[in-house]
Amino acid sequence: MAGNDHHPKHLETLDRDLGRVQMLELATAYVAKPVAGIGIAVVFVVFAALLATLLFGGSGHGVTIVIASVFGAYMALNIGANDVANNMGPAVGANALTMGGAIAIAAVFESAGALLAGGDVVSTIAKGIIAPSSMGSLDMFIWAMMAALLSSALWVNLATWIGAPVSTTHSVVGGVMGAGIAAAGFGAVGWSTMGLIAASWVISPLMGGLIAAGCLWFIKSRIIYREDKIAAARVWVPVLVGVMAGAFAAYLAMKGLKHLVKIDLKTALTLGLAMGVLIWLVMIPVVRRQSEGLENRNKSLKVLFGVPLIVSAALLSFAHGANDVANAVGPLAAIVEAARSGHFTDGFGIPFWVMLIGAVGISFGLFLFGPRLIRIVGSEITKLNPMRAYCVALSAAITVIVASWLGLPVSSTHIAVGAVFGVGFFREWDSERRLRKARMAMPERPRYSPEERRRRKLVRRAHFMTIAAAWIVTVPAAALLSMVIFWSIRAMVA
Protein backbone atom coordinates (compact mmCIF):
# COMPACT_ATOMS: atom_id res chain seq x y z
CA MET A 1 0.00 0.00 0.00
CA ALA A 2 2.81 2.33 0.96
CA GLY A 3 4.47 1.57 -2.37
CA ASN A 4 1.26 2.56 -4.16
CA ASP A 5 1.12 5.83 -2.18
CA HIS A 6 4.58 6.75 -3.41
CA HIS A 7 3.93 5.72 -7.00
CA PRO A 8 2.21 8.98 -8.10
CA LYS A 9 5.04 10.99 -6.49
CA HIS A 10 7.58 9.04 -8.50
CA LEU A 11 5.58 9.77 -11.63
CA GLU A 12 5.43 13.42 -10.65
CA THR A 13 9.20 13.53 -10.18
CA LEU A 14 9.70 11.77 -13.49
CA ASP A 15 7.40 14.27 -15.25
CA ARG A 16 9.33 17.11 -13.67
CA ASP A 17 12.66 15.65 -14.75
CA LEU A 18 11.36 15.03 -18.27
CA GLY A 19 10.10 18.62 -18.33
CA ARG A 20 13.58 19.83 -17.34
CA VAL A 21 15.17 17.72 -20.08
CA GLN A 22 12.71 19.13 -22.63
CA MET A 23 13.47 22.70 -21.51
CA LEU A 24 17.19 21.94 -21.74
CA GLU A 25 16.73 20.59 -25.29
CA LEU A 26 14.78 23.72 -26.29
CA ALA A 27 17.42 25.97 -24.73
CA THR A 28 20.21 24.06 -26.47
CA ALA A 29 18.38 24.30 -29.82
CA TYR A 30 17.91 28.05 -29.29
CA VAL A 31 21.59 28.57 -28.41
CA ALA A 32 22.84 26.17 -31.10
CA LYS A 33 20.84 27.81 -33.91
CA PRO A 34 23.10 30.88 -34.34
CA VAL A 35 26.16 28.68 -33.75
CA ALA A 36 24.99 26.22 -36.44
CA GLY A 37 24.36 29.15 -38.82
CA ILE A 38 27.88 30.48 -38.29
CA GLY A 39 29.25 26.93 -38.69
CA ILE A 40 27.52 26.44 -42.06
CA ALA A 41 28.70 29.90 -43.18
CA VAL A 42 32.30 28.99 -42.27
CA VAL A 43 31.99 25.72 -44.25
CA PHE A 44 30.82 27.71 -47.30
CA VAL A 45 33.74 30.16 -46.99
CA VAL A 46 36.16 27.21 -46.74
CA PHE A 47 34.52 25.69 -49.85
CA ALA A 48 35.12 28.97 -51.76
CA ALA A 49 38.79 28.91 -50.67
CA LEU A 50 39.17 25.26 -51.79
CA LEU A 51 37.56 26.04 -55.16
CA ALA A 52 40.00 28.92 -55.72
CA THR A 53 42.92 26.71 -54.62
CA LEU A 54 41.84 24.03 -57.09
CA LEU A 55 41.66 26.56 -59.94
CA PHE A 56 44.65 28.81 -59.15
CA GLY A 57 46.70 27.07 -56.43
CA GLY A 58 49.71 26.59 -58.69
CA SER A 59 49.79 30.11 -60.18
CA GLY A 60 51.99 32.96 -58.99
CA HIS A 61 49.11 34.90 -57.38
CA GLY A 62 47.32 31.75 -56.09
CA VAL A 63 47.41 32.78 -52.41
CA THR A 64 46.06 36.25 -53.26
CA ILE A 65 43.13 34.78 -55.25
CA VAL A 66 42.32 32.28 -52.45
CA ILE A 67 42.22 35.08 -49.82
CA ALA A 68 40.11 37.27 -52.15
CA SER A 69 37.69 34.33 -52.67
CA VAL A 70 37.26 34.04 -48.89
CA PHE A 71 36.42 37.77 -48.71
CA GLY A 72 34.04 37.43 -51.72
CA ALA A 73 32.20 34.48 -50.14
CA TYR A 74 31.88 36.43 -46.87
CA MET A 75 30.48 39.41 -48.80
CA ALA A 76 27.93 37.20 -50.61
CA LEU A 77 26.71 35.77 -47.28
CA ASN A 78 26.20 39.33 -45.99
CA ILE A 79 24.23 40.39 -49.07
CA GLY A 80 21.89 37.43 -48.51
CA ALA A 81 21.47 38.35 -44.85
CA ASN A 82 20.77 42.04 -45.50
CA ASP A 83 19.86 43.09 -49.04
CA VAL A 84 17.41 40.35 -49.98
CA ALA A 85 15.11 41.27 -47.08
CA ASN A 86 13.91 44.27 -49.09
CA ASN A 87 12.42 42.05 -51.82
CA MET A 88 10.87 39.46 -49.51
CA GLY A 89 9.95 41.52 -46.43
CA PRO A 90 6.70 43.08 -47.77
CA ALA A 91 5.27 39.74 -49.02
CA VAL A 92 6.10 38.04 -45.68
CA GLY A 93 4.77 40.98 -43.65
CA ALA A 94 1.50 40.86 -45.63
CA ASN A 95 1.21 37.08 -44.94
CA ALA A 96 1.18 36.36 -48.70
CA LEU A 97 4.28 34.21 -48.14
CA THR A 98 5.59 32.23 -45.18
CA MET A 99 9.20 32.86 -44.10
CA GLY A 100 10.19 29.44 -45.48
CA GLY A 101 8.41 30.09 -48.80
CA ALA A 102 10.05 33.51 -49.12
CA ILE A 103 13.52 32.10 -48.49
CA ALA A 104 12.98 29.28 -51.03
CA ILE A 105 11.70 31.65 -53.75
CA ALA A 106 14.45 34.20 -53.10
CA ALA A 107 17.20 31.56 -53.15
CA VAL A 108 16.01 30.21 -56.52
CA PHE A 109 15.38 33.56 -58.23
CA GLU A 110 18.44 35.39 -56.81
CA SER A 111 20.67 32.54 -58.04
CA ALA A 112 18.89 32.44 -61.43
CA GLY A 113 19.31 36.22 -61.83
CA ALA A 114 22.99 36.06 -60.93
CA LEU A 115 23.86 33.06 -63.11
CA LEU A 116 21.61 33.71 -66.13
CA ALA A 117 21.66 37.49 -66.39
CA GLY A 118 24.49 38.51 -64.05
CA GLY A 119 27.31 40.83 -65.04
CA ASP A 120 29.27 39.82 -68.11
CA VAL A 121 31.52 42.84 -68.00
CA VAL A 122 31.81 45.48 -65.31
CA SER A 123 33.95 48.55 -65.66
CA THR A 124 37.48 48.24 -64.31
CA ILE A 125 36.89 49.69 -60.87
CA ALA A 126 33.25 49.85 -59.77
CA LYS A 127 31.73 52.27 -62.27
CA GLY A 128 34.34 55.01 -62.54
CA ILE A 129 34.73 55.71 -58.82
CA ILE A 130 38.52 55.44 -59.07
CA ALA A 131 40.77 56.12 -62.09
CA PRO A 132 42.61 52.80 -62.64
CA SER A 133 45.73 54.55 -63.97
CA SER A 134 46.17 56.29 -60.59
CA MET A 135 46.88 52.96 -58.87
CA GLY A 136 50.44 52.81 -60.15
CA SER A 137 51.21 49.11 -59.74
CA LEU A 138 49.44 45.75 -60.00
CA ASP A 139 50.04 44.96 -56.31
CA MET A 140 48.60 48.31 -55.25
CA PHE A 141 45.47 47.65 -57.33
CA ILE A 142 45.01 44.14 -55.85
CA TRP A 143 45.45 45.42 -52.27
CA ALA A 144 42.91 48.19 -52.93
CA MET A 145 40.32 45.71 -54.25
CA MET A 146 40.98 43.37 -51.27
CA ALA A 147 40.42 46.25 -48.85
CA ALA A 148 37.23 47.31 -50.70
CA LEU A 149 35.81 43.78 -50.60
CA LEU A 150 36.54 43.11 -46.92
CA SER A 151 35.50 46.57 -45.67
CA SER A 152 32.13 46.50 -47.50
CA ALA A 153 31.45 42.97 -46.19
CA LEU A 154 32.28 43.99 -42.60
CA TRP A 155 30.05 47.07 -42.83
CA VAL A 156 27.06 45.12 -44.19
CA ASN A 157 27.59 42.52 -41.44
CA LEU A 158 27.52 45.25 -38.78
CA ALA A 159 24.38 46.81 -40.32
CA THR A 160 22.62 43.42 -40.31
CA TRP A 161 23.58 42.93 -36.65
CA ILE A 162 22.02 46.30 -35.64
CA GLY A 163 18.94 45.57 -37.81
CA ALA A 164 19.42 48.20 -40.54
CA PRO A 165 18.84 47.33 -44.22
CA VAL A 166 21.65 49.11 -46.10
CA SER A 167 22.71 49.24 -49.75
CA THR A 168 25.47 46.71 -50.50
CA THR A 169 26.20 48.65 -53.71
CA HIS A 170 26.87 51.78 -51.66
CA SER A 171 29.05 49.73 -49.29
CA VAL A 172 31.16 48.52 -52.23
CA VAL A 173 31.32 52.09 -53.57
CA GLY A 174 32.54 53.33 -50.17
CA GLY A 175 35.07 50.52 -49.94
CA VAL A 176 36.50 51.21 -53.40
CA MET A 177 36.61 54.96 -52.73
CA GLY A 178 38.40 54.53 -49.37
CA ALA A 179 40.98 52.12 -50.81
CA GLY A 180 41.55 54.46 -53.78
CA ILE A 181 42.14 57.45 -51.49
CA ALA A 182 44.51 55.40 -49.30
CA ALA A 183 46.43 54.17 -52.36
CA ALA A 184 46.55 57.25 -54.56
CA GLY A 185 45.11 60.27 -52.71
CA PHE A 186 41.88 62.25 -53.13
CA GLY A 187 42.65 63.09 -56.77
CA ALA A 188 42.06 59.46 -57.78
CA VAL A 189 38.34 59.66 -56.94
CA GLY A 190 35.79 60.47 -59.65
CA TRP A 191 33.91 63.04 -57.57
CA SER A 192 31.18 63.64 -60.16
CA THR A 193 30.23 59.93 -59.96
CA MET A 194 30.33 60.14 -56.15
CA GLY A 195 28.09 63.24 -56.27
CA LEU A 196 25.45 61.33 -58.26
CA ILE A 197 25.63 58.41 -55.81
CA ALA A 198 25.24 60.80 -52.85
CA ALA A 199 22.19 62.38 -54.55
CA SER A 200 20.66 58.92 -54.88
CA TRP A 201 20.68 58.55 -51.06
CA VAL A 202 17.94 61.18 -50.96
CA ILE A 203 16.26 60.58 -54.34
CA SER A 204 15.82 56.76 -54.06
CA PRO A 205 13.83 56.59 -50.80
CA LEU A 206 11.83 59.76 -51.55
CA MET A 207 10.85 58.54 -55.01
CA GLY A 208 10.03 55.07 -53.70
CA GLY A 209 7.99 56.48 -50.83
CA LEU A 210 6.02 58.94 -52.99
CA ILE A 211 5.14 56.35 -55.66
CA ALA A 212 4.10 53.78 -53.02
CA ALA A 213 1.99 56.38 -51.18
CA GLY A 214 0.34 57.45 -54.47
CA CYS A 215 -0.44 53.83 -55.29
CA LEU A 216 -2.00 53.25 -51.84
CA TRP A 217 -4.07 56.44 -52.19
CA PHE A 218 -5.39 55.13 -55.53
CA ILE A 219 -6.33 51.72 -54.05
CA LYS A 220 -8.05 53.33 -51.06
CA SER A 221 -10.01 55.88 -53.10
CA ARG A 222 -10.98 53.53 -55.97
CA ILE A 223 -11.59 50.26 -54.08
CA ILE A 224 -11.42 50.33 -50.26
CA TYR A 225 -13.63 53.40 -49.61
CA ARG A 226 -16.26 52.39 -52.20
CA GLU A 227 -19.75 51.24 -51.31
CA ASP A 228 -19.40 47.98 -53.27
CA LYS A 229 -15.72 47.04 -52.76
CA ILE A 230 -15.92 43.75 -54.69
CA ALA A 231 -17.43 45.38 -57.81
CA ALA A 232 -14.74 48.09 -57.66
CA ALA A 233 -12.04 45.43 -57.23
CA ARG A 234 -13.28 43.56 -60.33
CA VAL A 235 -12.67 46.72 -62.37
CA TRP A 236 -9.40 47.94 -60.83
CA VAL A 237 -7.44 44.87 -59.64
CA PRO A 238 -6.87 43.63 -63.25
CA VAL A 239 -5.70 47.15 -64.17
CA LEU A 240 -3.33 47.29 -61.16
CA VAL A 241 -1.91 43.82 -61.87
CA GLY A 242 -1.49 44.82 -65.53
CA VAL A 243 0.41 47.97 -64.49
CA MET A 244 2.63 45.86 -62.23
CA ALA A 245 3.28 43.29 -65.00
CA GLY A 246 4.14 46.08 -67.45
CA ALA A 247 6.46 47.78 -64.97
CA PHE A 248 8.26 44.53 -64.20
CA ALA A 249 8.56 43.56 -67.87
CA ALA A 250 10.22 46.92 -68.61
CA TYR A 251 12.35 46.70 -65.42
CA LEU A 252 13.61 43.19 -66.22
CA ALA A 253 14.20 44.03 -69.88
CA MET A 254 16.38 46.97 -68.88
CA LYS A 255 18.03 45.70 -65.71
CA GLY A 256 17.73 41.95 -65.36
CA LEU A 257 18.49 40.95 -68.96
CA LYS A 258 20.86 43.73 -70.03
CA HIS A 259 23.82 41.32 -70.11
CA LEU A 260 22.05 38.81 -72.35
CA VAL A 261 20.59 41.29 -74.83
CA LYS A 262 21.00 45.07 -75.13
CA ILE A 263 17.63 46.81 -74.76
CA ASP A 264 17.20 50.59 -74.74
CA LEU A 265 14.63 52.42 -72.61
CA LYS A 266 12.15 52.97 -75.47
CA THR A 267 12.11 49.26 -76.44
CA ALA A 268 11.82 48.25 -72.76
CA LEU A 269 8.81 50.55 -72.25
CA THR A 270 7.15 49.20 -75.44
CA LEU A 271 7.66 45.64 -74.18
CA GLY A 272 6.29 46.70 -70.80
CA LEU A 273 3.18 48.27 -72.36
CA ALA A 274 2.46 45.13 -74.44
CA MET A 275 2.91 42.84 -71.41
CA GLY A 276 0.77 45.12 -69.23
CA VAL A 277 -2.17 45.08 -71.68
CA LEU A 278 -1.89 41.29 -72.10
CA ILE A 279 -1.91 40.60 -68.33
CA TRP A 280 -4.77 43.09 -67.80
CA LEU A 281 -6.92 41.16 -70.30
CA VAL A 282 -5.94 37.80 -68.75
CA MET A 283 -6.69 39.02 -65.22
CA ILE A 284 -10.26 40.25 -65.93
CA PRO A 285 -11.84 36.73 -65.92
CA VAL A 286 -9.39 35.50 -63.23
CA VAL A 287 -10.37 38.26 -60.77
CA ARG A 288 -14.07 37.78 -61.58
CA ARG A 289 -13.74 34.09 -60.71
CA GLN A 290 -11.65 34.77 -57.58
CA SER A 291 -14.13 37.36 -56.28
CA GLU A 292 -17.23 35.17 -56.53
CA GLY A 293 -18.89 34.76 -53.14
CA LEU A 294 -16.54 37.19 -51.36
CA GLU A 295 -18.01 39.36 -48.62
CA ASN A 296 -18.10 43.12 -49.18
CA ARG A 297 -15.28 43.96 -46.73
CA ASN A 298 -11.59 44.86 -46.75
CA LYS A 299 -10.44 41.43 -45.59
CA SER A 300 -11.87 39.83 -48.75
CA LEU A 301 -9.72 42.08 -50.97
CA LYS A 302 -6.52 40.50 -49.61
CA VAL A 303 -7.24 37.31 -51.57
CA LEU A 304 -7.05 39.19 -54.87
CA PHE A 305 -3.56 40.63 -54.23
CA GLY A 306 -1.88 37.47 -52.90
CA VAL A 307 -0.61 35.89 -56.14
CA PRO A 308 0.58 39.17 -57.78
CA LEU A 309 2.55 39.85 -54.60
CA ILE A 310 4.33 36.47 -54.69
CA VAL A 311 5.16 36.90 -58.39
CA SER A 312 6.49 40.42 -57.79
CA ALA A 313 8.73 39.20 -54.93
CA ALA A 314 10.17 36.53 -57.24
CA LEU A 315 10.78 39.05 -60.07
CA LEU A 316 12.39 41.56 -57.71
CA SER A 317 14.74 38.79 -56.51
CA PHE A 318 15.66 37.86 -60.09
CA ALA A 319 16.47 41.48 -60.98
CA HIS A 320 18.40 41.93 -57.71
CA GLY A 321 20.44 38.81 -58.43
CA ALA A 322 21.25 40.06 -61.92
CA ASN A 323 22.37 43.49 -60.70
CA ASP A 324 23.70 43.43 -57.19
CA VAL A 325 25.60 40.14 -57.25
CA ALA A 326 27.84 41.60 -59.95
CA ASN A 327 28.41 44.69 -57.80
CA ALA A 328 29.34 42.54 -54.83
CA VAL A 329 31.70 40.14 -56.60
CA GLY A 330 33.04 42.87 -58.91
CA PRO A 331 36.14 43.53 -56.74
CA LEU A 332 36.80 39.75 -56.52
CA ALA A 333 36.53 39.45 -60.31
CA ALA A 334 38.90 42.43 -60.65
CA ILE A 335 41.48 40.76 -58.37
CA VAL A 336 41.23 37.43 -60.26
CA GLU A 337 41.60 39.12 -63.67
CA ALA A 338 44.46 41.37 -62.56
CA ALA A 339 46.32 38.49 -60.87
CA ARG A 340 45.79 36.16 -63.84
CA SER A 341 46.60 38.56 -66.69
CA GLY A 342 48.80 41.18 -65.06
CA HIS A 343 46.59 44.00 -66.47
CA PHE A 344 44.20 46.14 -64.43
CA THR A 345 43.33 49.14 -66.61
CA ASP A 346 41.07 47.30 -69.10
CA GLY A 347 37.49 46.05 -68.68
CA PHE A 348 37.17 42.52 -67.32
CA GLY A 349 34.66 39.69 -67.35
CA ILE A 350 33.24 37.97 -64.29
CA PRO A 351 34.21 34.27 -64.39
CA PHE A 352 31.42 31.73 -63.87
CA TRP A 353 32.95 30.33 -60.66
CA VAL A 354 33.01 33.85 -59.13
CA MET A 355 29.31 34.36 -60.00
CA LEU A 356 28.63 30.91 -58.51
CA ILE A 357 30.24 31.94 -55.20
CA GLY A 358 28.09 35.10 -55.28
CA ALA A 359 24.83 33.28 -56.07
CA VAL A 360 25.29 30.38 -53.61
CA GLY A 361 26.59 32.72 -50.90
CA ILE A 362 23.53 34.96 -51.19
CA SER A 363 21.22 31.93 -50.84
CA PHE A 364 23.08 30.67 -47.77
CA GLY A 365 23.20 34.13 -46.19
CA LEU A 366 19.47 34.59 -46.70
CA PHE A 367 18.62 31.15 -45.32
CA LEU A 368 20.91 31.39 -42.28
CA PHE A 369 20.71 35.05 -41.27
CA GLY A 370 17.98 36.72 -43.39
CA PRO A 371 14.77 36.19 -41.34
CA ARG A 372 15.55 38.97 -38.83
CA LEU A 373 15.75 41.75 -41.43
CA ILE A 374 12.84 40.25 -43.41
CA ARG A 375 10.74 40.67 -40.24
CA ILE A 376 11.95 44.25 -39.68
CA VAL A 377 11.19 45.36 -43.27
CA GLY A 378 7.97 43.32 -43.50
CA SER A 379 6.26 43.97 -40.21
CA GLU A 380 8.21 46.10 -37.73
CA ILE A 381 8.46 49.42 -39.63
CA THR A 382 4.70 49.58 -40.30
CA LYS A 383 1.94 46.97 -40.54
CA LEU A 384 1.62 45.66 -44.09
CA ASN A 385 -1.31 43.85 -45.73
CA PRO A 386 -1.34 42.55 -49.35
CA MET A 387 -2.58 45.90 -50.76
CA ARG A 388 0.15 47.91 -49.02
CA ALA A 389 2.84 45.35 -49.88
CA TYR A 390 1.68 45.44 -53.52
CA CYS A 391 2.28 49.22 -53.51
CA VAL A 392 5.84 48.67 -52.21
CA ALA A 393 6.62 46.11 -54.96
CA LEU A 394 5.13 48.26 -57.73
CA SER A 395 6.99 51.32 -56.46
CA ALA A 396 10.32 49.44 -56.57
CA ALA A 397 9.87 48.56 -60.26
CA ILE A 398 8.54 51.98 -61.36
CA THR A 399 11.20 53.95 -59.44
CA VAL A 400 14.05 52.04 -61.10
CA ILE A 401 12.53 52.71 -64.56
CA VAL A 402 12.07 56.45 -63.85
CA ALA A 403 15.60 56.71 -62.39
CA SER A 404 17.10 54.97 -65.45
CA TRP A 405 15.21 57.38 -67.70
CA LEU A 406 16.62 60.33 -65.71
CA GLY A 407 20.09 58.74 -65.66
CA LEU A 408 20.25 58.57 -61.84
CA PRO A 409 22.04 55.76 -59.98
CA VAL A 410 19.58 54.41 -57.41
CA SER A 411 19.70 51.76 -54.70
CA SER A 412 17.07 48.99 -54.74
CA THR A 413 17.42 48.79 -50.94
CA HIS A 414 16.68 52.48 -50.45
CA ILE A 415 13.71 52.35 -52.85
CA ALA A 416 12.06 49.34 -51.20
CA VAL A 417 12.55 50.57 -47.63
CA GLY A 418 11.56 54.11 -48.66
CA ALA A 419 8.38 52.64 -50.17
CA VAL A 420 7.57 50.85 -46.88
CA PHE A 421 8.01 54.17 -45.03
CA GLY A 422 5.93 55.95 -47.70
CA VAL A 423 3.06 53.50 -47.18
CA GLY A 424 3.29 53.90 -43.39
CA PHE A 425 3.40 57.71 -43.39
CA PHE A 426 0.53 57.86 -45.89
CA ARG A 427 -1.55 55.66 -43.56
CA GLU A 428 -0.76 58.04 -40.68
CA TRP A 429 -1.79 61.07 -42.74
CA ASP A 430 -4.94 59.33 -44.00
CA SER A 431 -6.06 58.22 -40.52
CA GLU A 432 -5.48 61.76 -39.16
CA ARG A 433 -7.51 63.20 -42.05
CA ARG A 434 -10.37 60.78 -41.42
CA LEU A 435 -10.24 61.54 -37.69
CA ARG A 436 -10.54 65.28 -38.38
CA LYS A 437 -13.53 64.65 -40.68
CA ALA A 438 -15.23 62.51 -38.05
CA ARG A 439 -14.63 65.21 -35.39
CA MET A 440 -16.16 67.87 -37.62
CA ALA A 441 -19.23 65.67 -38.10
CA MET A 442 -19.42 64.84 -34.35
CA PRO A 443 -17.75 67.62 -32.30
CA GLU A 444 -18.69 65.86 -29.02
CA ARG A 445 -16.29 62.92 -29.78
CA PRO A 446 -13.52 62.64 -27.15
CA ARG A 447 -10.12 64.00 -28.27
CA TYR A 448 -6.93 61.92 -27.95
CA SER A 449 -4.22 63.13 -25.55
CA PRO A 450 -0.77 63.89 -27.09
CA GLU A 451 0.58 60.64 -25.52
CA GLU A 452 -2.25 58.60 -27.05
CA ARG A 453 -1.71 60.25 -30.45
CA ARG A 454 1.99 59.35 -30.28
CA ARG A 455 1.10 55.77 -29.35
CA ARG A 456 -1.23 55.51 -32.35
CA LYS A 457 1.50 56.46 -34.87
CA LEU A 458 1.63 53.89 -37.65
CA VAL A 459 5.39 54.08 -38.39
CA ARG A 460 7.88 52.96 -35.77
CA ARG A 461 10.13 56.00 -35.33
CA ALA A 462 13.06 54.07 -33.78
CA HIS A 463 13.49 52.00 -36.97
CA PHE A 464 13.17 55.12 -39.10
CA MET A 465 16.03 56.84 -37.24
CA THR A 466 18.28 53.72 -37.18
CA ILE A 467 17.86 53.05 -40.89
CA ALA A 468 18.30 56.71 -41.93
CA ALA A 469 21.49 56.97 -39.83
CA ALA A 470 22.86 53.72 -41.31
CA TRP A 471 22.20 54.97 -44.86
CA ILE A 472 23.96 58.29 -44.22
CA VAL A 473 27.10 56.68 -42.77
CA THR A 474 27.36 53.67 -45.17
CA VAL A 475 29.75 55.21 -47.74
CA PRO A 476 32.01 57.09 -45.25
CA ALA A 477 32.07 54.13 -42.81
CA ALA A 478 32.96 51.61 -45.54
CA ALA A 479 35.56 54.08 -46.90
CA LEU A 480 37.25 54.55 -43.51
CA LEU A 481 37.26 50.79 -42.87
CA SER A 482 38.72 50.24 -46.32
CA MET A 483 41.52 52.79 -45.74
CA VAL A 484 42.51 51.10 -42.46
CA ILE A 485 42.45 47.64 -44.10
CA PHE A 486 44.48 48.87 -47.10
CA TRP A 487 47.17 50.40 -44.84
CA SER A 488 47.22 47.18 -42.77
CA ILE A 489 47.68 45.00 -45.89
CA ARG A 490 50.45 47.27 -47.19
CA ALA A 491 52.21 47.20 -43.80
CA MET A 492 52.03 43.39 -43.65
CA VAL A 493 53.14 42.77 -47.24
CA ALA A 494 55.68 45.57 -47.68
Automatic annotation (TrEMBL):
Please indicate if the UniProt record lists Metal-binding as a keyword.
no
| Example GO BP | phosphate ion transmembrane transport
Q: What is its main location?
A: membrane
Parts of the chain that traverse the membrane: 35-56, 63-81, 140-160, 172-191, 197-219, 231-253, 265-283, 303-322, 350-369, 389-406, 412-429, 464-489
Q: InterPro entries from the xrefs?
A: Phos_transporter
Gene Ontology cellular component terms for the protein in this record: membrane
Compartments where located: Membrane
GO MF assignments: phosphate transmembrane transporter activity
Keywords, comma-separated and alphabetical: Membrane, Phosphate transport, Transmembrane, Transmembrane helix, Transport
How does the record say this protein sits in the membrane? Multi-pass membrane protein
| UniProt key word Transmembrane | yes
Domain of life, per UniProt, equals Bacteria
Q: Which residues form a coiled coil?
A: none
PANTHER family the UniProt entry points to: PHOSPHATE TRANSPORTER (PTHR11101)
Q: Which family does it belong to?
A: Belongs to the inorganic phosphate transporter (PiT) (TC 2.A.20) family.
Q: What is this protein called?
A: Phosphate transporter
Gene source species: Sagittula stellata (strain ATCC 700073 / DSM 11524 / E-37)
